[in-house]
């Protein structure tokens, strides 16, 4: 079974490809109306997922918890729903707004769960050189 940190890293790379693809599309077309979708793809998808993967790689006891898998599932389900919906809303498709709201709520729930995992991690103070 693949580790949670590996899943987050692999997902991060996919979000990075999506984010840079939107950036390329904007740059080549000269149409920058999708800047919000581009930023969210890169920050919530690429950066936050990669940082979550780093955290779990550094804290294997936290990564082994069921809540880490729940975090991955909720967070990525939210992103899969939120990010395309944001793009569609920015393109003028008002019907995607409820999907954007649901996806945003799931993503936020994943962030809150991750915050709880980080704050309650017993090994957090033991990471680093000389500790």
Per DSSP, the total helix count is 5
Question: Could you give the count of β-strands?
Answer: 0
Q: Average pLDDT across residues?
A: 91
Largest sheet: none
Given the helix and strand composition, which structural class is it? mainly alpha
Give Rg in angstroms: 16 Å
Unreliable stretches covering 5 or more consecutive residues = none
Query: What fraction strand?
Result: under 5%
Distance between the termini: 31 Å
Total domain units: 1
- Name the shape in a single word: elongated
Helix residue percentage: over 70%
Order of helical and strand elements: HHHHH
Characterise the protein shown here:
The chain is mainly alpha-helical and 131 residues long. It has one domain (4-121). Helix content is 78%, strand content 0%. The protein is built from five helices and no strands. The protein has helices at 4-29, 35-58, 60-63, 66-90, 97-119. The mean pLDDT is 91.
Brief summary:
This protein is mostly helical. Helices cover 78% and strands 0% of the residues. The model has no long low-confidence stretch (mean pLDDT 91).
Characteristics of this structure?
78% helix; mainly alpha; 131 residues
Topology:
Elements: H1 4-29, H2 35-58, H3 60-63, H4 66-90, H5 97-119
Helix pairs in contact: 1-2, 1-4, 2-4, 4-5
